[in-house]
Every structure is written in structure tokens, then in C-alpha cells.
């Protein structure tokens, strides 16, 4: 008989499942509990009943039906809503997870399944020595991107276990505070604990022992060993709808892994989600730079982003550094990691930094009170319905954020033929250096869509000055901005890489080079040329970059990637309110673009700088955004959850608040406020 003091009307029986490894202890345990018992007390009562001495500090209750953790141990069962029918599992919060990195290497490590994804990614990045974890997130591969691979892999074997880098012994993996390694909040140089010399730019040392030198080289150095067969097996998007599938699986940063159906030993992709690479520095960011480079490289090889044949050869030439010089696979690697190499690429970094609206690079122009202007004779190309093109030379004047053009230089004091306001427009390069074609395509927002205007420049210098002015004007900035001159230099640098001449020696001896050209270009271009032809063309392009160090080649590759018109665009299929057909929405670091799904042409652009507010109607899953001048849009997302787009917008707004003066401490509360929504 049970006494009334032990078993009263206010108590009830609760079935608990314990995730443990003891064979002599039942995994299901029944306890008599009361509604006023707090969660911590329930844990204590359960552990005392198990009678096994071990560290239970990482354990917590997972509520199976409600898909949530009971982490507030001071809350009572009544407050949590736990009743007799609740299925509570007492399990570890840190579990093993497989992550496929941008360089296609898989790491296995212990991750918190109870923290928000935002915090879990921060811990992962500390383990991998990647600064600025807010730029990354976790992605589930959608079923559509796996179908092709599954068909190909029916007869192939599972990947060997040695292909997986096991990092399960690191402090973060064990649920302990991480040794910062080179993740220095003060940004002071970190020194090699063995030799006492400053840590090199490509090989980093970790005192916590989670990453030895060999493992670090896997993360910080590129090993271009992909084969044409490997490329053929991977998902290659052909249309905008295919590209939309790539962005459908981003996890919700405000919820935990378990809450989103991720189980122990599952595989996720760790990717750079936000294309605003802030404060890149080879002294600290060897792994980060390499992983950005690898993400860019695979995006180009798999044609996730479009580029011209000329640009593809530049990308191939920059990758060819590893094949021609063999630096990455020889003893010269150690030489390339000295401090002098770091100094060589610091100049390139000033042009490489990308923030939401660009960061200040110098103080040269800050004292100018009169905003500079450009005045040149340019060709205006207007597409016509009945004629192919109408090309005519005018006198153009660029002032503030507008372009005016006149019949000739003498009439520039009078009224212009037309004045084009470039604020909020799309600027697309139309360049072929070999053919001496230097064009600028402007898509200017008007009431019924986008007005197309083409400008033709005479030479590289003229093109660089006008292109840089157009890019800044599209963001609402003038040539007085301190980023104008760096933008001009960046464009000239990219054009210089494209401007190569035929070298008879390089072209006549392609067979002497140990290179697999099919691994350096996308399948579309590898099918277009024979192998020897492709090697010869890559070696031609390689002449302009042959003197670069490996780190500088990676930085130039990233810079060239950022120069592509489609850089930083994440696509989603949406249905705008009032529309009868589906459109594609491109989300970038500074704007939203409505794109015609059939033609791929931009219809309208909305800048984040003009945005007043955005919200989500969670009942009908509709995103609503208000802009200046009483412009408002609303749409539902068809290819993914609307929360993903909502988080993208809030995430980019959050990243725009970063500053070097604020150290590296993130305001996590602000991030969740901007991205979490009120679902």
C-alpha cells in the first residue's frame, strides 16, 4: 500500500525515456511527479533513480510531441505545460554532426542540438578557425538537388571513412568553452607556440589540439583534385527555377537543430549565406579565405552563377596556379606562408572588402566640397523594336547620381536631351577585352518596369571611371565617396587580368603542363574545346597572374567572382500579390530584384536603403515590404518557407551594422530581433 503522503491526488505518473548506454538500466523510467515540480527537480529525481555515477551536465529534456527543449530548469511542469501524456526524452544536448564544407570536405564534430543555429554556427566556426561566423549558416540539401546524384551513385560505394575529418575531441565538441585559437577578439598577432614566430597566413596552429597541422591544411589550403566524373555527378542548375532549389533548405537561425528535424550523424552543408565578407585579413583568415574561394570556385564550375568565356578562362587561370607552379603540393608552401606574402596581398584587401553599402577605404576625397563630375564623349545604344540597335555618339555628363547627355560638348550648358537618375538601377558590365568592347548596361527603374540603356566606352580607363561612377550611383553615392577610386582600381585590375596576349612558348607546349583543364572550367566550356586547346587558352590567360602568390590568387579569384553581375543573388520562386504568374525574387546584399522567370530579365529593383519596414503575415505566409515614396510589395514564397526570405532581409540589415570599431562581439539579440519574426 502507498501512503497518501507519497501518492496524493495532485501527483501523476510521467514516463521518461533516458538516452544512456547502460545495459542493466531500463531506458524507460516512470516517476510520480506533481505539477509544481520544477524541471531541475525532475532531472535530479531521475538521475537519483538511475543510480549511475557519471557527468549528466550535458543532458536535458527533449519534448518529442512539441519538438522543443525544456531548458529553463527553474520552470515548473505546469508552466511548461507538461502533463501525463508528455513524452520526454532525457538526452545529451551535444551530438555528432557531419558538415560538408565549401571545399567539399566533410568534417565530423560534436555540436549543440539545443542552442539556436546562430549560436551553433558560431561554435562551429570557432572550432574551424573561421572568423565572422554571422556570414555563414547551415543548409539542408533539398531533394531536388540530390536526385541526379542518387541515380549516379546506385552502383558506387559509400565514401570511405578516411575522407571524413573527425574533430570530435575538441573542447567545443565536448560542450566546454573553446580555446580561441587564432579566433582573436583583440586582433593581435597570434604566435606559433613552437618556434615563437608569428603564425603564418596559410598554416595556423591550435593549442587545443582539435586541429593539427595536417587537418588545418585541409581547411586552409586548396587541393584541386576534382575530376570531370565528379563534376558530372553533382547537381548543376540549368534554369532560375533550378537555382531556386539551392536556397530552399536554409535552417532557421532562431531555432535549434533538433527543433528542425536534424538528427545525430545527419549531414548538413556549412556555407557562406550572406555575401558580405567583412574585414578579410590573411593574417587571421587563412581558413575563411580558402573556404570563400572554394565556395566561389564550385559555384562557377557548377554554373550556379553565369560568366562569359573570357571570364571563365580568367577563373581557370587563377586556379591553374596550383597546377603550373605546384606550390600547394610542394615544399614551397612553407615559403609562401611568410609574413612578406601577407604584406603583398594587403593592398588587394582594401579593394576586396564588401559591406552592405561598401566601407570607407581612404580619406583622400573627404575634404572635397564640390562633388566631382565626369564629362566624355560616349556612344548611346538603345534597343529598338523594329531596328536591331540605334547607336549614336553624344556628350555625356555624370554629376551626383545622374547622367545627362547632350548633342555635343558645346550644347552642354543648355538643357540635356535626357537626364537619367541611376539611383536604384541595375548596372551590368558588357565587356570583351579581346574585341575592345567596353559596354555598360543600365536597367533603370521606371513606373512600368525597367528602362534599358547601353553606354559604349572607347577604352579601359574611360570604362573604369564611368563604370565605377554608375555602380556608386546605383547605391545612392557620388564620386566624392571615398570608395570611388578603389572601385576604379578594382575594375582596372580585373580588365588587366582579361587582357592577355598569345605566348607561343606556352601555347606550343601544353602537353608539358600537368593540368586537367576539365577540372578548371564548367562542363559547358570543357565540351566546347579539345583538351589541348583548352590548356593553351588557359596558359594564355595565366600569363597575367603567373607571378601571384597562392593567397593573392585566391583573393583575386574572390574579387573577380564579386565582379560578376549575378554575384550575391539568392533566388526564390514567388507569387506577387495581384499577379497571375510566378516570378523569381533575387535577394542580394543591398537589394531585392523581381525577375521574369521565362526570360531571366529584371523587372523591378528595390533597394534596402529605401526600405521602411517589412513583416510577415504568418497565417497566409505572406511577406510584406514598404519602401519610400509609398511603394509597397507583398508576395508569397513558393520554393521555400517565407521565413527564409524574411531572415535573409533581416540578416543583411544586421550585417550592415557591423563596424571594425565594435570589435568582434556580435549583438545576438539584435540579430534575432531582425530575423526571428513573430511566428
From TrEMBL:
InterPro entries: Band_41_domain (IPR019749), FERM_2 (IPR035963), FERM_central (IPR019748), FERM_CS (IPR019747), Kindlin/fermitin (IPR037843), Kindlin_2_N (IPR040790), PH-like_dom_sf (IPR011993), PH_domain (IPR001849). Pfam families: FERM_M (PF00373), Kindlin_2_N (PF18124). GO terms for cellular component: focal adhesion. Residues 379-475 form the PH domain. One of its GO terms (molecular function) is integrin binding. It comes from the Eukaryota. Keywords: Cell adhesion. GO terms for biological process: cell-matrix adhesion; integrin-mediated signaling pathway. Belongs to the kindlin family. This is FERM1 protein. It comes from Sinosuthora webbiana.
Amino acid at each position: 500500500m502507498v501512503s497518501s503522503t507519497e501518492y496524493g491526488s495532485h501527483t501523476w505518473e510521467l514516463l521518461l525515456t533516458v538516452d544512456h548506454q547502460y545495459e542493466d538500466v531500463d531506458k524507460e523510467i516512470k516517476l510520480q511527479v506533481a505539477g509544481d515540480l520544477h524541471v531541475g527537480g525532475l532531472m535530479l529525481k531521475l538521475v537519483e533513480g538511475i543510480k549511475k555515477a557519471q557527468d549528466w551536465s550535458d543532458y536535458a529534456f527533449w519534448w518529442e510531441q512539441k519538438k522543443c527543449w525544456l531548458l529553463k530548469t527553474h520552470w515548473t511542469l505546469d508552466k511548461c505545460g507538461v502533463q501525463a501524456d508528455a513524452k520526454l526524452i532525457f538526452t545529451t544536448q551535444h551530438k555528432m554532426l557531419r558538415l560538408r564544407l565549401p571545399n567539399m570536405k566533410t568534417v565530423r564534430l560534436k555540436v549543440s542540438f539545443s542552442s539556436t543555429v546562430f549560436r551553433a554556427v558560431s561554435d562551429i566556426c570557432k572550432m574551424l578557425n573561421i572568423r565572422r561566423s554571422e556570414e555563414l549558416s547551415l543548409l539542408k540539401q533539398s531533394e531536388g538537388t540530390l536526385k541526379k546524384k542518387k541515380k549516379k551513385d546506385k552502383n558506387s560505394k559509400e565514401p570511405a571513412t578516411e575522407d571524413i575529418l573527425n574533430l570530435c575531441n575538441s573542447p567545443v565538441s565536448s560542450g566546454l568553452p573553446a580555446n580561441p585559437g587564432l579566433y582573436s577578439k583583440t586582433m593581435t598577432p597570434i604566435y606559433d607556440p613552437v618556434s615563437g614566430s608569428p603564425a603564418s597566413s596559410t598554416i595556423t596552429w591550435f593549442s587545443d589540439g582539435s586541429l593539427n597541422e595536417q587537418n588545418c591544411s585541409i581547411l586552409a589550403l586548396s587541393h584541386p583534385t576534382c575530376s570531370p566524373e565528379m563534376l558530372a555527378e553533382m547537381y548543376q542548375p540549368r534554369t532560375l527555377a533550378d537555382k531556386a532549389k539551392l536556397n530552399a533548405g536554409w535552417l532557421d537561425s532562431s531555432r535549434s537543430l533538433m527543433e528542425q528535424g536534424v538528427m545525430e550523424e545527419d549531414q548538413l552543408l556549412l556555407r557562406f549565406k550572406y555575401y558580405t565578407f567583412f574585414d578579410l585579413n590573411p593574417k587571421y583568415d587563412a581558413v575563411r579565405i580558402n573556404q570563400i574561394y572554394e565556395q566561389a570556385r564550385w559555384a562557377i564550375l557548377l554554373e550556379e552563377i553565369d560568366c562569359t568565356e573570357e571570364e571563365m578562362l580568367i577563373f581557370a587561370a587563377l586556379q591553374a596556379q596550383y597546377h603550373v607552379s605546384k606550390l600547394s603540393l610542394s615544399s614551397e608552401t612553407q615559403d609562401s606562408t611568410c609574413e612578406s606574402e601577407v604584406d603583398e596581398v594587403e593592398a588587394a584587401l582594401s579593394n576586396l572588402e564588401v559591406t552592405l553599402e561598401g566601407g570607407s577605404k581612404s580619406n583622400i576625397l573627404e575634404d572635397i566640397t564640390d562633388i566631382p563630375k565626369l564629362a566624355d564623349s560616349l556612344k548611346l545604344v538603345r534597343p529598338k523594336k523594329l531596328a536591331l540597335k540605334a547607336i549614336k555618339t553624344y556628350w555625356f555628363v555624370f554629376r551626383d547620381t545622374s547622367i545627362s547627355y547632350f548633342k555635343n560638348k558645346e550644347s552642354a550648358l543648355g538643357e540635356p536631351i535626357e537626364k537619367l537618375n541611376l539611383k536604384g538601377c541595375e548596372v551590368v558590365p558588357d565587356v570583351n577585352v579581346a574585341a575592345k568592347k567596353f559596354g555598360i548596361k543600365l536597367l533603370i527603374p521606371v513606373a512600368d518596369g525597367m528602362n534599358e540603356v547601353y553606354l559604349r566606352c572607347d577604352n579601359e580607363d574611360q570604362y573604369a571611371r564611368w563604370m565605377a561612377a554608375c555602380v556608386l550611383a546605383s547605391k545612392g553615392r557620388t564620386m566624392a565617396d571615398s570608395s570611388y577610386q578603389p572601385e576604379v582600381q578594382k575594375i582596372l585590375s580585373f580588365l588587366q587580368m582579361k587582357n592577355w596576349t598569345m605566348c607561343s612558348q606556352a601555347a606550343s607546349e601544353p602537353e608539358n603542363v600537368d593540368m586537367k583543364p576539365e577540372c578548371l572550367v564548367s562542363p559547358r566550356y570543357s565540351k566546347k574545346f579539345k583538351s589541348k586547346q583548352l590548356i593553351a587558352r588557359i596558359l594564355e590567360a595565366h600569363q597575367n597572374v603567373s607571378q601571384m602568390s597562392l593567397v593573392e590568387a585566391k583573393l583575386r579569384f574572390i574579387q573577380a567572382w564579386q565582379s560578376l553581375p549575378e554575384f550575391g543573388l539568392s533566388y526564390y520562386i514567388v507569387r506577387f500579390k495581384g499577379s497571375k504568374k510566378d516570378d523569381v525574387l533575387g535577394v542580394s546584399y543591398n537589394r531585392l530584384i523581381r525577375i521574369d522567370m521565362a526570360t531571366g530579365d529584371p523587372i523591378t529593383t528595390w533597394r534596402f536603403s529605401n526600405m521602411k519596414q517589412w513583416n510577415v503575415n504568418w497565417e497566409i505566409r505572406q511577406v510584406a515590404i514598404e519602401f519610400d515614396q509609398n511603394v509597397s510589395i507583398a508576395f508569397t514564397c513558393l520554393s521555400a518557407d517565407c521565413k527564409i526570405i524574411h531572415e535573409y532581409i533581416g540578416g543583411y540589415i544586421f550585417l550592415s551594422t557591423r563596424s571594425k570599431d565594435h570589435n568582434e562581439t556580435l549583438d545576438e539579440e539584435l540579430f534575432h530581433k531582425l530575423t526571428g519574426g513573430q511566428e
